[in-house]
Backbone:
């Protein structure tokens, strides 16, 4: 007999009628001979209403412990109702709170991470033929205090239970049909993905996070939990989330294991930098299309802003054997007179889903390199990866420095074990502000210092780019959430840095696991933008992602153009979520 965890979100259990619909689905699964653990959210907008109530009586910052006690009631209501409804229909069932289900968390109110789950009670109930209905979003500390996991935490509860129970699969029922290739409100031709890997899903943050909490994806990946996201309103199969390299997790440190789980080095690359190329549409497209046409595989691409404006620096890496060829091509294009090549570089990277939203981690990497007197020549980041170009002679010291700080041995590069398309989805983030710190001395430790000051304030940096140094100085540019803008500006001014702020930008990203092995993918994205005369202001890449900063006013048009350029348009319109 198989074991399935089924999670139903707030809209799926919003009223009595929908709860009965959910019961039908559970019974149907039981009738297929499966054992079922159900995880539920609070009904509809219950959690929001409880928060409003708390604020009405206690102001903006109610006591966090009492707050958890309050919010945890929302999910209890749903479990009790679902369980009694099942019983009334003749299906044995039992409702369990986080405490009764053995969900042990860290002692942090309102943002607790799950440490482990004592599954003995759930197993005993299952053995008696019951459907076990567990509250999402809550747990208890080792000393018995009630905690909640943070907004949207029921997804996390469900996948963690599936991991702990070694369930055959975890099904997340929601009010959308699954994960789409892009945002259907902006691109009506968005299509439904039959499958996506957890790594891609995490990189498509702004797209995937609306459907499934990233912490849940992280657990699925670490424990290779077979996961599917489907609509509560139909029998359509939804989207499978694959974790081809998973099953490394420790069930006694479910969500609190390593934040960084990979250190990589690539000594096979060479760097080319074009300094002071004109800042206008079509430049990157011309350059990378030319390289792709000659069959040169480009790995890392970084385009940063130069000061004064109107010029950019574009740097990229290619296999060493292709360096001369690439240089010849670049010279023939006459985009700039200043082309710098370096055959003696390495790319060191750290990767891990724990990097998402944790500004201290990139800062730790830069500090570790700085402390060992290793100069960082280029930086490119994505959601789950930070890559730095350094001098080849510094490679071993860099590995040692990173190994020490993250307690890891170097890991082999990611080789996708699934056949994956080169572009799975396109994401647009319109909530970004770009900051540029200008004329930073090109010395070990300087990037670290600047980024550390922001990390200390807990401000997550999104796309961090450091370009090729010119005349002994660098410009470091990065994006942050627009809501963090004033805090970030103030912090940087305190460090005495000249900062340039631009709130009128958007980030457009393509993500695909197959990208690493394919040539000309970035070029095709740049080309699609060039055809619409859309200027690219910054570029950063990782193996599975290319991100461009563009003007906000062109963002939606750019998204549509790129979505179409990769033939992701579907033939059917996806109904937009009801709420
Ligand atoms: N009820 C909680 C919330 O609204 C948890 C969840 O729905 O996942 O954030
Ligand atoms: Mg929810």
Residues:
């Amino acid at each position: 007999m198989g074991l399935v965890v089924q999670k139903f979100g707030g809209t799926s259990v919003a009223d009595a009628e929908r709860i009965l619909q959910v019961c039908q689905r559970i019974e149907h699964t039981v009738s297929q001979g499966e054992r079922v653990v159900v995880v539920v959210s609070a009904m509809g907008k219950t959690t929001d209403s409880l928060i409003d109530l708390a604020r009405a009586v206690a102001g903006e910052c109610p006591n966090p412990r009492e707050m958890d006690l309050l919010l945890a009631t929302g999910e209890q209501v749903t479990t009790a109702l679902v369980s009694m409804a099942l019983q009334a229909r003749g299906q044995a069932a039992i409702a369990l709170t986080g405490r009764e289900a053995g969900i042990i968390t860290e002692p942090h109110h309102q943002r607790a991470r799950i440490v482990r789950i004592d599954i003995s009670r759930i197993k005993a109930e299952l053995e008696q033929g019951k459907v076990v209905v567990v509250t999402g979003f809550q747990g208890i500390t080792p000393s018995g205090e009630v905690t909640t996991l943070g907004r949207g935490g029921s997804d996390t509860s469900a996948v963690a239970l599936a991991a702990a129970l070694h369930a055959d699969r975890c099904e997340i029922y929601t009010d959308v049909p699954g994960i789409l290739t892009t945002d259907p409100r902006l691109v009506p031709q968005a299509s439904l993905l039959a499958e996506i890997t957890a790594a891609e899903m995490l990189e498509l943050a702004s797209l995937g996070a609306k459907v499934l909490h990233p912490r849940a994806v992280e657990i699925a990946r670490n424990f290779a939990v077979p996961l599917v996201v489907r609509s509560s309103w139909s029998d359509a199969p939804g989207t499978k989330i694959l974790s081809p390299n998973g099953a490394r997790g420790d069930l006694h440190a479910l969500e609190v294991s390593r934040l960084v789980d990979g250190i990589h080095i690539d000594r096979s690359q060479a760097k080319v930098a074009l300094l002071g190329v004109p800042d206008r549409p079509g430049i990157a497209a011309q350059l990378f299309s030319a390289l792709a046409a000659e069959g040169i595989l480009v790995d890392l691409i970084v385009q940063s802003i130069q000061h004064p404006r109107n010029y950019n620096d574009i740097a990229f890496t290619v296999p060493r054997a292709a360096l001369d060829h690439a240089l010849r091509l670049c010279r023939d294009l006459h985009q700039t007179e200043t082309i710098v090549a370096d055959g003696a570089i390495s790319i060191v990277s750290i990767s891990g889903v724990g990097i998402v939203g944790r500004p201290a981690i990139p800062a730790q990497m830069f500090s570790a390199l700085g402390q060992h007197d290793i100069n960082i020549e280029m930086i490119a980041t994505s959601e789950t990866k930070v890559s730095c170009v350094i001098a080849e002679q510094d490679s071993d010291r860099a590995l040692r420095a990173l190994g020490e700080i993250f307690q890891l041995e170097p890991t082999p590069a990611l080789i996708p074990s699934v056949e994956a398309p080169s572009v799975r989805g396109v994401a647009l983030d319109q909530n970004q502000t770009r900051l540029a710190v200008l004329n930073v001395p090109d010395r070990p430790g300087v990037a670290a210092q600047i980024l550390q000051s922001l990390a200390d304030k807990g401000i997550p940096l999104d796309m961090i780019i450091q370009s090729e140094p010119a005349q002994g100085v660098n410009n470091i540019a990065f994006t942050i959430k627009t809501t963090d803008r004033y805090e970030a500006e103030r912090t940087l001014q305190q460090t005495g840095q000249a900062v340039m702020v631009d709130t009128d930008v958007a980030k457009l990203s393509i993500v695909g696991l197959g990208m690493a092995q394919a040539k000309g993918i970035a070029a095709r994205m740049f080309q699609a933008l060039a055809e619409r005369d859309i200027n690219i202001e910054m570029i950063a890449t990782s193996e599975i992602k290319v991100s461009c900063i563009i003007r906000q006013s062109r963002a939606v048009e750019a998204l549509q153009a790129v979505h179409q350029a990769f033939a992701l348009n579907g033939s059917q319109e996806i109904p937009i979520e009801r709420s």
Remarks:
- The chain has a mean pLDDT of 91.
- The chain is about 30% helix and 30% strand.
